[in-house]
Amino acid sequence: MKTYKEQHKPASDFESRSDYLDHELQIMKPKRFKLNLPGRDFRFEWEDLVPALAGTLGIIAMYSSVMMAWANGLTEAWDHITLGKEFAIEVSRVEMIIPAFLFVILASGFFNPRANLAGNHGPMIPLIATIALAGAHPLALAILIGVFGLLLSYFKGGSRLVNLTSKGVAGGLLTFLGFMGAISQIKTIQNWGMGLESTAVEAGSMGYLALIILSFTVILYSFLARIDKRWLAIPACAILALAIALIGGAGFDLQITTEIGLPNLNPAYWWGSTDEGWMLGLPKMEHFIASLPFAILAVAMWSPDFLGHRIFQEMNYPKKSEKVLMDVDDTMTMCSIRQMVGTAVGGGNITSSWGTYLIPAAIAKRPIPAGAILLGLMVMAVAILGSPMDVAVWPPVRCIALLVGVFLPMIEAGIQMIKKSSCAQAAGVCVFMAMVTNPVLAWALAMFLDNNGLIGDKDRAKKLSVIDRLVIPLTILIICVAAVLVVGMLRGSYGIESFL
Fold it and tell me: Which of 50, 64, 80, 399 has the fewest CB within 10 Å, making it most exposed?
């Protein structure tokens, strides 16, 4: 069998650029957990810059948003903790240097190009405040996610969890999280706009800026969706929001203070005590218990996320290119290890398959490795430069990036899943339970009811085994209920003390 290098032909031999890119995908034979080299196993093309740039801009906004959410949540949950923008930027820089080198450049770029990059778990962002208020610990959460993810990938359980969570339940969960997250970001940018009134002495009232930014964002996002270029939404809308804010006179509110250099890369600084870093110290047993239901939900939501990205590749790649499609279980393995290592060195990201990279890569007809290497180098460069991080956490940029990159796609995906009346019933119960209790408990209960034909499709239970219908859903439900009661989440958040 001929190697990739032997089968490669110059682009001039093909009638179109598209034909050349198709041929590249068809002749690649990436090695799993072995060294893949540029020129011998893959090549760099200018198209690789598209997903690399989109992924870089997306992850800056996502990481900074995650860390700001942790900072706000922990500050509210603990009396001795006060964390702010500086903390969020430094933790984001840690996440963008060590994990980017180990798991983007080395893992997906050189040693397993079939494993998609380990990026950010967008659907979990609106839950971070709830996670912090529940008494969870970022490091405890990371360890549990990593362990559950490794177990799931070892037993090839990704597709099984997809089957256990019906489209109705998944659609309800995504819709609820999307709406809650979108409302939160809209309020944040509106408050930012109104706050400019008291700061801008010469400019007068500037509260209108938030409305203008949101209006133009809707127009641009709709246009990109119309021309099937929605993968450009994060960089395009974030840059547009930045431009409008600066042109509108809000530049005085943008503080560029982060200097060039490396963040603190000593794990002991971040986790060693309660007076520096995260100010939490190492996790204790109660932290693991509080983190348990959220870790289960995070890993459960991996499978549809991973499979969705792979399907997007299948839709855009030519026939006979199966060898370059992302492997779901390998991606899950890399995400699990990256979750534990990235947080252990001081980070706080909740990881998942990197959609803001893979979706534009699929559209550009490019495989994973070359773009991954470029993206990793870009991310590390931004983290070292520092000043781009100040721009990324500025409310108009951060909120718009989250709206178009996470929450609006979540709402759209959730609505698309709810096509039948039975799916709508399951989704409605899931949303209602999420409003009454919390999304974790709502997912567990709705999945149990749905798999036993009590809501949704009545014939669904007939298609499932006893283990899939009763054992696994009931076990997950019991674990979630027990964990929620132990940490007092219902007492603290929903005021039903008579039940406890």
Answer: 80
| 370 in any annotated domain | yes
122-131: per-residue pLDDT in tens? 778 878 888 8
Q: Would the pTM of this model clear 0.85, i.e. be above it?
A: no
105, two tokens:
């450049």
Residue 86 has pLDDT above 70, yes or no: yes
Q: Is residue 340 part of a domain?
A: yes
Q: Tell me what pLDDT residue 487 has.
A: 52
Q: What is the pLDDT of residues 228-282, one digit of tens each?
A: 777 778 888 989 999 999 998 888 888 888 889 899 999 999 998 888 899 999 9
Q: Which domain holds residue 187?
A: 44-156+178-283+301-419
